[in-house]
């Protein structure tokens, strides 16, 4: 009986020690509201671009401010985005779009495929004329960031705009 009691106490002590060493599971950071995220995206894009770009190609964060045509060009629907900030030129002589999009639940692939299609069609459009714009579209950056946001940078200063946006989001 003493051996059984000693065994039970020894097991209890082992479990107690094991429990002390366990770290509590980290609590996930809640997703900001769509409005907060869109504002964060807009601030990052604005900080990374020139004054002229900010003045002449404003950042849009409200789905009502984008026409159906914009969504068709971008290759995905407004409902595919939880939050976004987009600065897009609709002029047929300029390859320009800077966008940060947090896809809606389960829509990452739709958003990424749509944006890739947009980049491809822009590149195709400028392949036979306006070589400077064709080069801009060829240098477009389309990537998924660590937090799941999708970033598209298609602008003359693609590398500095990209780096500025990423730095602003990390701050």
Structure description:
With 171 residues, the protein is of the alpha+beta class. 51% of the residues lie in helices and 14% in strands. The chain has helices spanning 2-21, 34-48, 51-56, 68-74, 108-125, 131-138, 158-170; strands spanning 81-88, 97-103, 141-144, 150-154. Strands 1-2-4-3 form a 4-stranded antiparallel β-sheet, with helices on both faces. The relative contact order is 0.13.
Overview features:
171 residues
Going across the biggest sheet, name each strand in turn. 1-2-4-3
Largest beta-sheet characterization: 4 strands, antiparallel
What is the strand content? 5-15%
Structural class: alpha+beta
Stretches where pLDDT falls below 50 for ≥5 residues?
A: none
- The helix content, as a percent range, equals 40-55%
Task: Write a brief structural summary.
This protein has 171 residues and is of the alpha+beta class.
Write the layout of secondary structure elements.
Blueprint: H1 2-21, H2 34-48, H3 51-56, H4 68-74, E1 81-88, E2 97-103, H5 108-125, H6 131-138, E3 141-144, E4 150-154, H7 158-170
Antiparallel strand pairs: 1-2, 2-4, 3-4
Helix pairs in contact: 2-7, 5-6
